[in-house]
Design brief:
The chain is of the alpha/beta class. The chain contains ten helices and ten strands. It has helices at residues 20-29, 50-54, 81-91, 111-121, 128-131, 145-155, 174-179, 181-189, 212-222, 241-245, and strands spanning 13-15, 34-38, 44-49, 74-75, 95-99, 105-110, 159-164, 167-173, 226-231, 234-240. Strands 1-2-3 form a three-stranded mixed β-sheet. The protein has a three-stranded mixed β-sheet with strand order 4-5-6.
């Protein structure tokens, strides 16, 4: 039986007193979507994610991580991988912390690493339409970038499809916002940048009547975390890795 230790990687860890701009730099430069936070005794307190660091748009800031941290899912080294997947689904995070007996963080498990293993070992039941998010908030490509920034920090959603004349034309995520200094500066200065400036235009999609297992296979094959759901009328939903895990028997 595979366990958390088999997938353990080094994850970014900061102190409660560190500045949030430091977390932003880590999340911008590395593949992680969460940074874990510890106290002075190196005990795990929680985490901050990309949405949290986007709330501070200034290039330099004295704002610390305190006040932004959220409870973190955590496991021990010998926790079975299915339990890890359950926590990832419940917390809707992209990682789970691994702690030792003193609650000190030893590493973490990434959703992207365990996802292929989980879907190969468990039966996934149902159609995409059974598990997708149906109330999708969209944006048009020519809308101000400030709008999608506001939607991300206020709604908790991590990505927004771009739709023009009822046709899906792109996908903008919080990762796209944090990755570019020019874009972050544009948000801070409220300039004329538009959503089209950050949208990814080559998108893998799926139909609502496909099996959820097919969605999982597409996510692994193309290394993507979400799929817009399209039928003959246009965009009808969006499905992500957490939704797929909800289809586990």
């Amino acid at each position: 039986m595979r366990c958390a230790q088999d997938f353990m990687v080094e994850v970014p860890v900061l102190k409660l007193t560190d500045q949030i701009t430091k977390a932003r730099q880590i999340l911008r430069d590395l593949r992680f979507r969460e940074v874990y936070v510890t106290d002075a005794r190196k005990v795990l307190l929680g985490y901050v994610d990309i949405t949290d660091v986007l709330r501070v748009t200034a290039t330099k800031s004295d704002v610390t991580l305190e006040g932004y941290i959220k409870d973190a899912a955590h496991v021990s080294c010998d926790t079975e991988v299915e339990k890890v997947a359950k926590l990832l689904r419940e917390f809707r995070t992209d990682s789970v912390a691994i702690v030792n007996g003193q609650e000190h963080i030893a590493g973490g498990v990434l959703l992207s690493a365990v996802f292929p293993v989980i879907i190969s070992r468990n039966e996934l039941r149902g159609l995409v339409s059974d598990h997708m998010t149906k109330k999708v908030v969209t944006a048009t490509p020519d809308e101000p970038l400030q709008k999608i920034y506001s939607m991300i920090v206020e709604s908790g959603f991590t990505a927004f499809p771009g739709v023009k004349k009822q046709k899906l034309v792109g996908l903008a995520s919080r990762r796209d916002l944090i990755s570019s200094h020019r874009i972050r500066t544009g948000i801070a200065q409220n300039n004329h940048a538009t959503i089209e400036d950050v949208m990814v235009k080559e998108i893998i999609t799926i139909a609502p009547d496909e099996y959820i297992s097919t969605a999982a296979e597409l996510m692994v094959k193309h290394d993507v975390s979400r799929l817009p759901v399209i039928d003959g009328t246009g965009l009808v939903g969006i499905v992500d890795r957490h939704d797929v895990l909800a289809g586990m028997v």
